[in-house]
Specification:
27 strands; four-stranded mixed beta sheet; five-stranded antiparallel beta sheet; about 550 residues; about 15% helix; globular; 8 helices
Length: about 550
């Protein structure tokens, strides 16, 4: 494996505490130069580093240590490959500490790691990479310095402080830890300092496999009160169930979320002395979360006005999609929108995009189109899960039989359902659907609120594909699609929103290869669209994916 395309470090990791670095004296067996308080003179070069075998990983770390005068070699344990990525990262942290005479960190695999995991999941879901969260403890404290999403929990409310490292684009924990330790000069070696800080006792490690690879959130805890630190015992199990939100609505400038409640399946936030917090906040936003200057976001924190009811003042324009996001003390979150608006259908062929079934859990699901052969990847069923169900829904709302056929484009061929004349088949939320009617009508896909999360992956074939990125995903553009496919090594040749590749709204470059204003065009969430690409790839649409920049550590 090669090094990341570049190291783009734009935010420091906070290490501002009430005490200085107090390193444990090195053991006599360690080289004098293995000093946790001394940083390397310069970054170690990624050139020539290999990461495919245990021997190569150990050699990379050993050589980097030697370059700074530390002659303690790294020797990976025999069971390293069988460890989970989380335990691999913990072992690497502690081996770096042990090589410099520092005590081991203990892993909080339940509370701290669950909060860290959910921060990584957030970054994947909303397409950002930063310490502040747009949904969890928005505007509270100094993220990266005191990690307010950890401090919000009762067990850490008094005399505790936290630091945090973030990493992305690294294929494995070894690469991420190497960057923290040996390629961190532009950050003043803050990430290295967090790993080697003698005062830290516990760590929470959250690794989430997002659309563009793993995202790592590593939190470090220290007690800063007087006297001996109290004995901390992590919860026996993690609270992993997201909050519930019954509805979200908007009227006269006010957004309202109702039925907001912590999951009854969570146990650490109950009883006389809860370890974790229950609901810690609700935020609202329109369409997509966008990070602005100075680590700000377009989300608006809500105020609880009654049990289970949260409101906020927010401006919505016609066509905007309002989201409400509820978060609990473990960082679990639920993002919902109102039901999709009615779709105007005309006589003849219509191209539609079907929202996912209400029971889908898209925040943790990765899916491929029906053409995949991977049994581990399950496509997400549409709100009308079969062609027969779609026709029945349209006919029922029109109060007469007007739906004539349903078609999907699978593996380069059309598959058609006609009532009473052909076999029924499943419909999925990531494929375009053609619906032919005898007369026009208004059709409401569902009356249930929709859950928002990481979009499902779409398996693209070379040539033409008929796909969908349905409600509540909004703001997807031709430009974002082109860049995301380029990141995968694929090339976008044309997009058509219409019933056929040559019929509808066509977006493609001119003869000089220039896209012009077509790049600004948005892809409607109510319609399927055609993609023509140069090779096969697996694409996870992201309305936030507007650039090819790679992030590494923060």
């Amino acid at each position: 494996m090669g090094a990341p395309r570049r190291i783009a470090i734009v935010a420091t990791v906070g290490l501002c505490f009430c005490f200085g670095v107090a390193a444990v004296a090195s053991s006599p067996a360690l080289a004098v130069a293995c000093d946790p308080t001394i940083n390397p003179a310069s970054d170690y070069s990624w050139t020539g580093l290999q990461w495919d075998t245990d021997q190569e990983i150990a050699a990379d770390f050993t050589n980097a240590r030697a370059a700074e005068g530390c002659t303690t070699p790294m020797v990976l344990p025999a069971g390293y490959d069988s460890m989970s990525p989380q335990l691999q990262m913990l072992w690497l942290f502690n081996n770096e500490r042990e090589a410099r005479g520092e005590p081991d960190l203990q892993l909080d695999g339940t509370l701290m790691s669950q909060v860290a995991l959910n921060h990584s999941r957030e970054m994947a879901t909303y397409g950002y990479f930063d310490h502040p969260s747009p949904i969890n403890q928005l505007g509270v404290g100094q993220p990266g310095v005191d990690v307010p999403r950890q401090l919000v929990n009762p067990v850490f409310a008094t005399n505790y402080t936290f630091g945090e490292n973030l990493a992305g684009t690294f294929a494995n924990p070894a690469q991420a830890v190497f960057a923290y330790m040996y390629v961190d000069s532009s950050e003043g070696w803050g990430h290295r300092g967090a790993i080697l800080q003698a005062g830290y006792q516990w760590t929470g490690i959250g690794i989430y496999n997002g659309p563009n690879g793993p995202l790592y959130t590593d939190d470090f805890e220290a007690y800063v009160g007087f006297g001996s630190a109290p004995v901390y015992t992590p919860p026996a199990t993690a609270d992993t169930n997201p909050p519930t939100v019954a509805s979200v609505s908007y009227a006269n400038g006010t957004a309202t979320a109702t039925g907001v409640a912590d999951s009854p399946l969570n146990v650490n936030d109950t009883g006389a002395n809860p370890t974790t917090a229950a609901i810690t906040g609700v935020v609202f936003y329109a369409n997509n979360i966008v990070e602005g200057p100075n680590q700000s976001f377009n989300t608006v924190p809500g105020t609880q006005t009654a049990p289970g009811i949260w409101t906020a003042q927010i401006t919505l324009n016609p066509g905007d999609v309002l989201h409400a996001v509820a978060v609990d003390g473990s960082g679990n979150f639920t993002d919902i929108t109102a039901p999709p608006p009615a779709v105007t259908l005309t006589a003849g062929a219509n191209t539609v995009a079907l929202p996912a079934a209400a029971t889908a859990t898209t925040t943790a699901m990765s899916m491929l189109a029906r053409s995949t052969s991977s049994p581990a990847s399950t496509p997400e069923l549409a709100v009308t899960p079969t062609a027969k169900a779609l026709i029945a829904s349209v006919d029922r709302q029109a109060d007469r039989k007007i739906a004539k056929s349903v078609r999907v484009y699978v593996n380069g061929h059309w598959r058609t359902y006609r009532p009473g004349r052909s076999s029924n088949f499943a419909l999925y939320a990531n494929e375009g659907v053609q619906l032919t009617l005898s007369t026009g009508t208004k059709w409401l896909p569902t009356t249930q609120r929709q859950r928002f999360g990481v979009a499902g992956a779409i398996h693209l074939r070379k040539g033409w594909n008929y796909v969908a990125v349905p409600y509540p995903t909004t703001g997807m553009t031709c430009h974002a699609t082109r860049l995301e496919l380029a990141r995968l090594g694929d090339k976008l040749l044309q997009i058509t929103v219409g019933t056929a590749p040559d019929h509808g709204v066509i977006m493609k470059p001119n003869k000089r290869g220039q896209w012009g204003n077509d790049l600004l065009a948005k892809l409607p969430y109510s319609e399927g669209f055609w993609l023509k690409v140069t090779t096969s790839s697996t694409w996870t649409p992201s309305p936030n994916g507007y650039s090819l920049s790679s992030h590494a550590v923060k």
